[in-house]
Design brief:
This protein is mostly helical. It has 20 helices and three strands. The chain is about 65% helix and about 0% strand.
Length: about 450
C-alpha cells in the first residue's frame, strides 16, 4: 500500500480492494458485491487478468451520494462540514430498564424475592453507535492518519472533524483527532505549542464521552509525557489503555516508545514486538522498532531493518530521520546529509533543508569539521528567528566537542519548553556528556532519569 498522499483528495486513488473497503468501513466481500449489484465505480488496470483494481475517491463519494441508505451503503462523505466541532462532551443518555413485578402466586413469591436485587440493578449504558456517515468519515480518517505525511494528516484531521460534526457523541472520532494532532508536531511543521493543547482537548472529550475507550487514554498519555512531562501519570494512562484494549497495536506501539525514552529497553522491545504482531503491516511500528533496537544497542540489526523499510517506502519520513541520526553518530557524513535532506523534503521543512544544504557545502570544502561549522552558522541564525530549536543547536555543538555551549543551548531548550529535548536521555549526540554533572541535572529537569552510559 502506498503511503504517500500528496494529491488532491477529490482525485486520490485507492489501489486495492482492501483500500476501497476501508474507505467505506466495510469488508472486501461487500464492496465487491456492490460493484456487480450496484455499479460501484471500480476500475481495472489494462492488460491484467482483472485482479488489479483501483478507484478514485471522488467517484466513490458521488456513488455514495446516489446510493445513500441502500443496502447498508454509507451516506456520502464529500459534503461540507463545520470546522469547529469540539462540542461539549456530554455522554449520550443511558438506557434504563424498569422491571415489572407480576404476581405469580404463592409459589413464585420466594423466587421473586430471591432475584429482586438483580432486576433492580441499573443497567449499563449501551455502547454508542455512530451514524453511518460519521463512521464512513472515521474510517477514511484512519486510513489517512496512517500515512504519516503532512497531506495525509491534514485530510485525516478534516475527516475526523466532519465525523464529529455528523455525530457529536462519537468518542472514537475525538480520539482520532487527538492522535492527528499528536503526530502533526512531528510529521508536519505545526508547532508543538499549538498541536499538543489541541490533542489534549480532543482526547479529554473522548474520555468524557467514553471512559472505557483505551485509545483515548493512550492519546492523553502521549500528551502527558511528551508535552506535560508527567511521566508517572503518562504511565498510568498507558497501562489503563492497555487494560481496556489489550489488542490495540497503536497503544502497544506508543507505550513502547515511551519505555524506550525512559531507558527501559527490555520492556520497550517487548511492547514493540506485541505491536508488530498485532499489526505486521504498519510501517510506523517497524520504523520505531528500528529506533528501539538501536537505542538498546542492537545497532546493526536496527540499521538493516530501517534500510529495508526505506527501500520499500522511500516517501515515509521516519526511516530517513532515524538513519540520519545513526549516520551522524558513526561519522558517516555523506549519508547523514542525504537522509537529513530527504527527511526535510518529506516534512516540507524549509529550515531543515537550509541546514542540510549548508552542511553539504561545508563537507565539500573542509570535511566533517567544515560541515558542522557550516550547519551551526545556519542553525544559530534560524534559532534567532525561532525556526530551529535550541536542542538542534546543542546537538551540533556537542558533535563539535563544545560541551559548554551545548549545555547553554540545552538550558535554553528546556526554558523554551521545546518538545524534542525529551530525547536527551537516549540521544547519541550527547554520549560524551553523560558523566557531566550539569548535563545530568538537565536530564532530570527534562523529567528523565540520568545515565552514565
Amino acid at each position: 500500500m502506498a503511503l504517500e498522499n500528496k494529491v488532491n483528495p477529490v482525485s486520490r486513488r485507492l489501489e486495492t480492494w482492501k483500500e476501497i473497503a476501508a474507505y467505506f468501513g466495510r469488508d472486501e466481500r461487500t464492496v465487491k458485491r456492490w460493484e456487480t449489484s450496484r455499479g460501484l465505480p471500480v476500475r481495472r488496470l489494462p492488460g491484467t487478468t482483472g485482479a488489479r483494481v483501483y478507484a478514485y475517491e471522488q467517484e466513490l463519494a458521488n456513488w455514495m451520494h446516489r446510493n445513500a441508505g441502500a443496502d447498508g451503503v454509507a451516506e456520502p462523505v464529500a459534503m461540507a462540514e463545520p470546522d469547529s466541532v469540539l462540542a461539549p462532551a456530554t455522554p449520550p443518555p443511558a438506557s434504563t430498564f424498569q422491571p415489572k413485578l407480576v404476581w405469580l402466586g404463592l409459589v413464585g413469591v420466594l423466587a421473586i424475592l430471591g432475584t429482586i436485587g438483580f432486576f433492580l440493578r441499573p443497567s449499563a449504558p449501551m455502547a454508542h453507535q455512530p451514524t453511518r456517515a460519521a463512521a464512513a468519515l472515521y474510517q477514511a480518517g484512519l486510513y489517512e492518519w496512517q500515512t504519516r505525511t503532512p497531506g495525509g494528516l491534514a485530510l485525516a484531521a478534516a475527516d475526523f472533524k466532519r465525523a464529529i460534526g455528523r455525530d457529536p457523541h462519537y468518542a472514537q472520532a475525538y480520539a482520532g483527532l487527538a492522535d492527528c494532532y499528536n503526530l502533526m508536531r512531528e510529521y508536519t511543521t505545526m508547532p508543538p505549542q499549538q498541536a499538543y493543547p489541541l490533542a489534549k482537548d480532543a482526547a479529554e472529550h473522548a474520555v468524557a464521552l467514553d471512559p472505557s475507550l483505551g485509545e483515548a487514554h493512550a492519546s492523553l498519555a502521549f500528551v502527558d509525557f511528551y508535552w506535560s512531562r508527567d511521566q508517572s501519570h503518562a504511565r498510568q494512562e498507558f497501562q489503563k489503555a492497555l487494560a481496556l484494549q489489550p489488542r490495540n497495536a497503536t497503544i502497544h506501539h506508543w507505550y513502547a516508545t515511551f519505555l524506550m525514552t525512559v531507558r527501559d529497553f527490555p520492556s520497550a522491545l517487548s511492547e514493540i514486538e506485541k505491536a508488530q504482531a498485532l499489526d505486521p503491516e504498519s510501517t510506523a511500528i517497524l520504523a520505531d522498532k528500528g529506533l528501539i533496537l538501536y537505542t538498546a544497542g542492537r545497532r546493526a540489526e536496527a540499521t538493516a531493518l530501517l534500510q529495508r523499510l526505506e527501500q520499500a517506502q522511500p516517501n515515509f519520513m521516519s526511516p530517513h530521520v532515524y538513519l540520519a541520526s545513526f549516520a551522524f553518530d558513526r561519522g558517516d557524513d555523506k549519508n547523514f546529509l542525504y537522509e537529513l535532506a530527504t527527511a526535510a523534503a518529506e516534512k516540507h521543512d524549509a529550515s531543515a533543508s537550509l541546514v542540510a544544504s549548508a552542511g553539504a557545502q561545508g563537507l565539500g570544502s573542509a570535511g566533517r569539521s567544515g560541515m558542522l561549522k557550516a550547519m551551526l552558522a545556519v542553525q544559530e541564525r534560524l534559532y534567532m528567528q525561532r525556526d530551529v530549536s535550541a536542542y538542534d543547536v546543542a546537538r551540533t555543538f556537542a558533535h563539535l566537542g563544545d560541551a559548554e555551549d551545548a549545555i547553554i543551548y540545552l538550558k535554553a531548550s528546556l526554558s523554551r519548553h521545546e518538545t524534542d529535548n525529551i530525547a536527551i536521555g537516549i540521544d547519541p549526540a550527547f554520549n560524551a556528556l553523560r558523566k557531566n554533572a550539569d548535563f545530568n541535572a538537565l536530564v532530570q529537569q527534562a523529567g528523565l532519569k540520568p545515565s552514565s552510559a
